[in-house]
Amino acid sequence: MSTPFELISRLGARVRKSITGLGAFMRLGGAILARSGAALRRARLVSQQVHFIGNHSLLIIAVSGLFVGFVLGLQNYYTLSRYGSEEALGLLVALSLTRELGPVVTALLFAGRAGTSLTAEIGLMKAGEQLAAMEVMAVDPIRRVLVPRFWGGVIAMPVLAAVFSMVGVIGGWVVGVLLIGIDPGAFWSQMQEGVDVINDVLNGFIKSVVFGIAVTLVALHAGWTARATPEGVSRATTRTVVHSSLLVLGLDFVMTALMFGN
Amino acid sequence: MTRDKTDFWVGLFVLLGAIALIFLALRAGNMSSFSFAPTYQVQAHFDNLGGLKVRAPVKSSGVVVGRVASIGFDNERFQAVVTLDLESRYQFPSDSSVSILTSGLLGEQYIGITPGGEDKMLADGSTVQYTQSAVVLEELISKFLYSSAGSQDQQ
Q1: Looking at the record's lineage, which domain of life comes first (chain B) (predicted)?
Q2: B82 and B23 within one domain
Q3: Is residue B146 part of a domain?
Q4: Cα separation of A182 and A74, whole Å?
Q5: In this model, does residue B35 exceed pLDDT 80?
Q6: For residue B77, is pLDDT > 60?
Q7: Are B57 and B12 in the same domain?
Q8: Residue of chain A whose alpha carbon sits nearest to that of B15
Q9: I want to staple B17 with a disulfide (CB 3.0 to 4.6 A). Which of A159, A225, A244, B29 is the partner?
Q10: Where is B147: in which H helix or E strand?
């Protein structure tokens, strides 16, 4: 049986630890940004990471986008047909994809597909003492390992989100126009009438950039701070998915409130 | 994989992203309705704007001839003042009338221009004299209720 004194100090330790963790996360982000100048001079490393993170995620993103578009088309048609406004299907599909679903679903998939591999890679590098070996050879591991991966993720994520939205709109068109038989002219013209380039497309793009930064940083931080054991790496990988998914959903709420609030 | 091959695939990846963004802007968005044609500005005063928003279309006979540039409030006349960006290739007589209309029953509000008969054309910076405010549904209903109550009294 613990005394109230112990209980309170345990609570205090927990709060202090989470604040310390947040501070370490922010400092790692700052360190990566501060060392980014060198990465721009060695663009080859960044381009390798874009290939690893981006190109390899393209298939899952495109297929998911297509099916999300299909489902949006079918589901919204069901609701809209009750009000006799089936032509608004294109508008609904395009708005929900560019504003919310494109950036958010891409970021969740991105955390699962690319974030975990980043965490596991860096965690295993740490477990194999490769990072320590780099430091012995006077190579800064943040500059050589983290910075290219960070920029690779930040560049790949908006591209993937844009592809997701585009494929989703095409999926909605396949279901709405080809399968159900909505008039294609009304489908596209209602969409163009209602989707604003700055309000919707550009804001969705900004969202995807922010999500790219958040997910990549969480993944790198989890790998960087992983305990150097097989169990530690597996825990860090799980943490990447949980934390970055929660962070993406929370950030999405804040940004939606700021961008589309009024 | 060799360096050149990686670069090729990364280039293709980024290119695909650019194509997707252009598709969203042009095909799904209203980028294609952005015109960079030269414009001239005309002001109009309204008693009530209803739900008019900045960048709402300005139409004449159903053709988009410009956009709402800004909406403000005139403190001297106690009226809303709307600045319209009209495309220079469309000229309207100076006694044209401007009204706030609604597309469909519940659609967006836009501005309609009905040309007048004057020989002089609206110039840059001029003010339109004849305006008609937005129709507010609540006002219509209250007018209708008031008039029907009045007719009952007479019986």
Answers
A1: Bacteria
A2: no
A3: no
A4: 12
A5: no
A6: yes
A7: no
A8: A159
A9: A159
A10: helix B137-154
DSSP H or E stretch at residue B145: helix B137-154
Residue B41, both tokens: 């500005």
Q: Which residue of A has its CA nearest to B56?
A: A193
Whether the Cβ atoms of residue B80 and residue B48 lie closer than 8 Å to each other? yes
Q: Which range among A165-169, A257-261, B1-5 shows the weakest confidence by mean pLDDT? A: B1-5
Asked whether residue B70 falls in the same domain as residue B107, the answer is yes
Mean per-residue pLDDT over chain B, rounded = 84
Q: Containing H/E element for A8?
A: helix A4-34
Query: Domain check: are B1 and B66 in the same one?
Result: no
Q: How many CB atoms lie within 10 A of CB A204?
A: 27
Strands (E) located in chain A: none
A156 interaction partners in chain B (CB closer than 8 Å): 13
Contact B33 A195 (CB under 8 A): no
Instruction: Tell me the pTM.
Output: 0.78
Burial A128-137 (b: 16+ CB within 10 A, else e): eeebeebeee
Distance CA B44, CA B51 (A): 16
- Find chain A residues with C-beta within 8 A of B53's C-beta: none
Same domain? For B2 and B57 the reply is no
Q: Which helix (H) or strand (E) holds A241?
A: helix A230-259
pLDDT for the residue B135: 80
CA gap A148, A118 in Å, rounded: 11
Which of A42, A46, A55 to probe the B interface (max B CBs under 10 A)?
A55
CATH of the domain at B78: 2.40.30
Asked if residue B129 is part of any domain, the answer here is yes
Q: Are residues B62 and B105 in the same domain?
A: yes
Residue contact B16–A205, C-beta within 8 A: no
Q: Is the ipTM of this complex over 0.95?
A: no
Whether B14 and B54 map to the same domain: the answer is: no
* Shortest Cα–Cα distance, A173 to chain B (Å): 11
Running DSSP on this structure, what letter comes out for residue B117? S
Mean pLDDT of B53-61: 85
Domain count, chain B: 2
Among candidates A96, A120, A119, A116, which has minimal Cα distance to A108?
Answer: A116
Q: Are A65 and A168 in contact (CB under 8 A)?
A: yes
pLDDT greater at residue B103 or residue A63:
A63
Q: How far is B117 from chain A (nearest CA, A)?
A: 32
Same domain, residue pair B78 and B5? no
